[in-house]
Design a protein that fits this description.
There is one protein chain. The chain is an alpha/beta fold and 364 residues long. Helices cover 36% and strands 24% of the residues. The protein contains 10 helices and 15 strands. The chain has a 9-stranded mixed beta sheet. The protein has a 6-stranded parallel beta sheet with strand order 3-2-1-4-5-6, with helices on both faces. A hairpin with a 4-residue loop joins β9 and β10. α1 (13-28) packs across α9 (310-324). The radius of gyration is 20 Å and the shape is globular.
């Protein structure tokens, strides 16, 4: 591909996040990437995005973007119930795809989407952005350091104000017709994927869930215990609460045989590390970013100051994969596996049984 010519469907919060970083990428690489068109049924946000981020055109109907002759790449940033229809339409046109998480309303629907992508031979990436977090990339490198020894326990808490208010306002997340579920699949799917990135596939799990906000089918609390092949156990809590002024927050603590690694930041920030008989160290944000740049490799000089912005690094990796002909990462198959793991959690919570993941088959 000589130039990535991008169409965006969705001018909401996540569409705005992608548009902002893609604008930076297109400005830095004007001969290699371009924002062509955006679609959203609401006139005010789509026209604002057109003028603010430099889209050539803006449309009310997504079909105008899907059928646009100048577009070869599509970003899907709409409520979860719309993903499948748009992905199938894009695949029919041979468009490369970036699809926000979660992949689909169900594993079965996601499997059909993946099959269509693979039949068409288009390239597709899923929006599991924590794999591009500076903090988590550095934590993973410390985890893989032989000095740390094998991991033995993990405690992971992810809490957020129920995103029908506040900074992450998305009213549709309370509507089970538009969302695949609640805090687990719509937010915590990031955490499930991160744990598999760090520790490999779990072999069994147990789970509990609650719905206190009262939106049918949209849980706001999930607690999970995952066991991995080496015997490691990880406890994960996903919580949507009603504390409006509290920032969306993750706290990850990893206990290894010879090390302790922790952070209360999920994108850019500090990391605590203690190894062997040594004193506890606090890696400052600048040190974390320096280490991350070393791991991430060379990026365009104009974008170097933004290397700690996970969404920018994610979208840059996607654009670079298309330009170089490589398969983007994480691909849609990774997204489908995260969906399978989430459905196993829901099954465990409903049945109150321990789930053996090798034998688990989601409902079709």
């Amino acid at each position: 591909m000589q130039k990535v010519r991008i169409g965006m469907i969705g001018a909401g919060i996540i569409g705005g996040t992608h548009s902002a970083v893609l604008h930076q990428i297109c400005t830095a690489l004007p001969e290699r990437a371009e924002l062509v068109a955006i679609a959203d049924p609401l006139e005010e946000p789509r026209e604002m995005f057109r003028s603010l981020y430099g889209y050539r055109e803006a449309f009310a109907d997504a079909r105008a973007v899907l059928e646009h002759r100048d577009i070869n790449t599509l970003f899907v940033c709409v409520p979860t119930n719309c993903h499948a229809e748009i992905v199938h339409a894009a695949v029919a046109r041979g468009l490369h795809l970036f699809c926000e998480k979660p992949l689909a309303m169900s594993y079965a629907e996601g499997a059909e989407m993946l099959a269509a992508v693979e039949r068409a031979g288009v390239k597709a990436q899923i929006g599991l952005v924590l794999r591009y977090s500076a903090v988590y990339t550095v934590m993973r490198s410390l985890l893989l350091d032989p000095q740390s020894g094998p991991p033995v326990a993990v405690v992971f808490r992810d809490d957020q104000c129920f995103p029908i208010r506040g900074l992450h306002f998305s009213a549709w997340r309370a509507d089970r017709k538009q969302t695949a579920g609640g805090t687990l699949i719509e937010h915590g799917v990031h955490d499930l994927d991160l744990l598999t990135w760090f520790f490999g596939q779990p072999r069994r799990l147990r789970a509990w869930e609650q719905n206190r906000a009262g939106h049918p089918g949209v849980e706001d609390y999930v607690a999970i215990e995952l066991e991995f092949e080496n015997g490691l156990r990880a406890q994960l809590i996903n919580l949507w609460h009603d504390v409006l002024q509290r920032h969306s927050n993750r706290r990850l603590e990893i206990f290894c045989q010879k090390a302790f690694i922790a952070s209360s930041h999920d994108m850019s920030g500090t990391v605590t590390w203690q190894c062997g008989d040594g004193d506890e160290k606090r890696l400052a944000e600048d040190d974390v970013l320096r280490r991350y740049r070393e791991i991430a490799g060379t990026i365009p000089e104009a974008l170097s100051p933004l290397a700690g912005v996970a969404y920018l690094m994610q979208d840059l990796a996607f654009v670079d994969a298309l330009l170089s002909g490589r398969d983007p990462h994480p691909g849609m198959r990774v997204g489908l596996e995260a969906q399978r793991l989430a459905e196993a959690v829901y099954h465990a919570a409903l049945s109150r049984d321990e789930v053996e993941l090798a034998a688990f088959r989601p409902a079709t």
